[in-house]
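[step 3/7] inverse_fold.run input=structure_tokens len=767
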């Protein structure tokens, strides 16, 4: 794949030469000395931070270097200077370079970890942050918003950094455009590795956001190039472009649950990017298109199986005369020379059309403006297993022109344009996931300005004599690959650190408590058969498994603790298997911290009997579970079941991403068995996943004031089938959301109320 090496190599050489040529190196070992060095710095100075932990420091790096002699703030040894505690860094001035700092074990006291601005008088221009790491430097309270890197000024660069693990509210990287001094900025975000961002459970979890609704018609000219977005799952928008004239080139989106979204703004270029999905997820997306004038060329999509907002190519309907913060109509967009390999229904048009919801939405929210003057040409769709519905339309597709697109199986979609042609195509897998046609095709559509598409995905020249449909022109180098992770991020931080687990054998209550305290992440505590009496809560603050040594002889844990059996902390991941948990009806089985649940937790329960508790799971506002999974288990004689219902501000947030109940029995639950809530109308908060299959509910719900056994209001993805409901004294078992395709499967209902389907669910508007 082609890379913008010229910019990066020049930058690295320039920094290296200048560090060697420094005439004034100043080593500092504390914040006071650092402040003095910064205050007296001049062009060409190299300020060296001594190795060690710099705790609770707020650094204001100000100075005026020159292009030839920048002022550099660097680690004595790259990676050995850690910024920890309540700390941040602000840059202001010109030609400053920050090199090799490591932010961890803390959070910012302000709105940003690194900000290219000190105040309104000291804005950064021509400044660079490189070879730095920000690792889980996230707010204790997930609802507190911040940005890890915030751009102001002009011509600033974020290059060769590793950013991983942001779990709180707010984009990881934000481009600010308020004021003339911050527009036409030409910022560079290049060669970075954006490591896994955990699912947030609501909006405002973007990895990069360029502008906002208020500045969305402002020229930015930011270049986002040669970055790796590695499992960036914060929300449906990995990149949210909300300004004009931005370019997205040669990035890799690897198994990231979202899309590159042209949310606001016009005239973006999306060229040469890779979107890699898999067979296991329908949440991994591609490109979503809104607004006007975009060119989408030379991109490669592999196994993108998402639907609607997360489809490989999602072209939206707009709102007539849309306000700035909503959806403008798609017009004058070119989609050309892209390859869609083994993608499910890759082209989806008029996504978001919601005319059917007009009875619950105001007229100003109805997306009825179809795409116009959109050209889709010279693209390749190839499927090893035929996909007979490559085009999905949610409205008429009368504003899209299709020219010379090739597919290798029959198109049986409702939309059958002449410009999508079925032909026998042979391909070769050159390397992992890289499929290339065996022959070039030179008889191509030549549209307006198509002569400006002079390169292919790998940077090879497209000519009248050597061209091809799709992203790639033959010949392809034998060593060509889609992803080379060594090309992204720092050259010093190990992103593949894997801990090995061990098994700890336990036979007494005291040994269990000790083992849980001393175990490392991912260790397994194996319990011998017997009774374990516990008068205090078990604290779960790491990934840990507690299992039976013999699955046929289940140990029993009997709790007399006051509040809860298990107290779950941030990053706690608890797996329980082949156990019996018994309470005294005064405590919950599982409870999250009341506050500061800064990171997600997980709960996996298999073949466990849970009995005689208040709530089985009681969570706090701001807490978030990536997964709650209960299989092959029994829950009985409890006051309430699983209470994932504390995000009631109707802002699109919710308390868990995946909730799974399979082959589990609920008996004699006095109130609600499950309360799983997401409020607020906003399509960018598509989320919440409930699977309820093969379960049995008996004698439950008699004290539930709403007379509903299972509450799942606002949860979008619901599978509800093959369950048995017997003798539950409620009016309704559940209310399903018809507009989202929810419908009860084959359930058995005996003396238990009914399952109701509401087509259009009325939700509070969020804006």
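[step 3/7] decode complete -> sequence:
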């Amino acid at each position: 794949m082609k890379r913008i090496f010229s910019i990066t190599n020049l930058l690295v050489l320039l920094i290296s030469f200048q560090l060697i040529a420094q005439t004034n190196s100043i080593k500092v070992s504390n914040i006071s000395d650092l402040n003095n060095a910064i205050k007296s710095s001049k062009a060409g100075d190299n300020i060296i931070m001594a190795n060690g932990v710099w705790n609770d420091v707020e650094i204001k790096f100000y100075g005026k270097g020159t292009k030839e002699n920048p002022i550099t703030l660097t680690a004595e040894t790259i990676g050995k200077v850690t910024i920890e505690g309540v700390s941040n860094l602000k840059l202001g001035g010109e030609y400053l370079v920050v090199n090799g700092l490591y932010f961890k074990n803390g959070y910012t006291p302000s709105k940003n970890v690194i900000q290219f601005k000190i105040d309104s008088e000291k804005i950064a221009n021509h400044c660079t942050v490189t070879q730095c790491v920000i690792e889980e430097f996230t707010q204790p309270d997930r609802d507190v918003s911040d940005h890890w890197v915030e751009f102001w000024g002009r011509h600033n660069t974020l290059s060769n950094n590793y950013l991983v693990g942001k779990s709180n509210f707010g984009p990881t990287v934000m481009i600010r455009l308020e004021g003339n001094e911050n527009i036409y900025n030409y910022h560079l975000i290049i060669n970075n590795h954006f490591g896994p961002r955990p699912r947030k459970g609501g909006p405002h979890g973007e990895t990069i956001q360029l502008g906002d609704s208020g500045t969305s018609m402002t020229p930015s000219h930011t270049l986002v190039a040669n970055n790796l977005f590695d499992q960036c799952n914060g929300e449906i928008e990995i990149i949210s472009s909300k300004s004009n004239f931005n370019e997205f080139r040669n990035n890799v989106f690897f198994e990231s649950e979202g899309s590159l979204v042209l949310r606001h703004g016009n005239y973006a270029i999306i060229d040469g990017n890779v979107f890699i999905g898999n067979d296991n997820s329908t949440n991994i997306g591609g490109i979503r298109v809104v607004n006007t004038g975009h060119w989408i060329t030379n991109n490669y999509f592999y196994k993108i199986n998402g639907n609607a907002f997360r489809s490989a190519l999602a072209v939206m309907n707009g709102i007539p005369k849309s306000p700035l913060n909503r959806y403008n109509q798609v017009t004058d967009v070119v989609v050309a020379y892209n390859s869609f390999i083994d993608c499910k229904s890759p082209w989806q048009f008029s996504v978001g059309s919601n005319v059917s919801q007009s009875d619950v939405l105001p007229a100003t929210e109805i997306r009825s403006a179809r795409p116009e003057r959109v050209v889709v040409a010279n693209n390749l769709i190839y499927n090893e297993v035929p996909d007979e519905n490559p085009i999905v339309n949610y409205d008429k597709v009368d504003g899209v022109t299709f020219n010379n697109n090739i597919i290798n199986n029959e198109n049986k979609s409702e939309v059958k344009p002449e410009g999508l042609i079925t032909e026998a195509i042979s391909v070769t897998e050159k390397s992992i996931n890289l499929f290339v046609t065996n022959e070039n095709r030179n008889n191509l559509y030549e549209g307006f300005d198509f002569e400006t598409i002079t390169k292919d995905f790998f940077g090879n020249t497209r000519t009248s004599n050597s061209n091809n449909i799709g992203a790639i022109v033959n010949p392809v180098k034998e060593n060509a690959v889609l992803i080379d992770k060594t090309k992204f991020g720092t050259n010093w931080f190990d992103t593949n650190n894997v801990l090995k687990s061990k098994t700890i054998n336990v036979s007494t209550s005291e040994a269990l408590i000790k083992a849980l305290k001393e175990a490392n992440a991912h260790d397994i505590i194996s319990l011998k058969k017997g009774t374990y009496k516990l008068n205090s809560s078990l604290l779960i603050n790491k990934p840990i498994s507690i299992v039976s040594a013999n699955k046929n002889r289940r140990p029993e844990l009997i709790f007399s603790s006051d509040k809860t059996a298990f107290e779950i902390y941030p990053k706690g991941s608890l797996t329980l298997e082949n156990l019996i948990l018994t309470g005294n009806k005064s405590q919950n089985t599982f409870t999250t911290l009341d506050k500061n649940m800064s990171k997600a937790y997980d709960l996996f329960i298999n073949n466990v009997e849970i009995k005689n508790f208040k709530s089985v799971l009681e969570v706090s506002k701001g807490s978030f579970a990536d997964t709650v999974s209960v299989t092959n288990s029994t829950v009985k004689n409890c006051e309430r079941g699983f209470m994932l219902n504390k995000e009631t501000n109707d802002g699109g947030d919710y308390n868990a991403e995946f909730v799974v109940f399979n082959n589990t029995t609920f008996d004699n639950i006095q109130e609600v068995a499950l309360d799983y809530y997401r409020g607020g109308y906003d399509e960018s908060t598509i989320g919440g996943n409930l699977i309820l299959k093969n379960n049995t509910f008996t004698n439950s719900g008699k004290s539930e004031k709403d007379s509903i056994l299972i509450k799942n209001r606002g949860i979008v993805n619901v599978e509800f089938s093959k369950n048995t409901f017997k003798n539950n004294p409620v009016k309704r078992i559940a209310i399903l959301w018809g507009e989202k395709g929810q419908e009860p499967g084959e359930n058995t209902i005996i003396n238990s109320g009914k399952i109701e389907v509401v087509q259009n669910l009325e939700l509070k508007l969020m804006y």
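[step 4/7] annotate
DSSP finds three helices and 69 strands in the chain.
The first strand starts at residue 24 and ends at 28.
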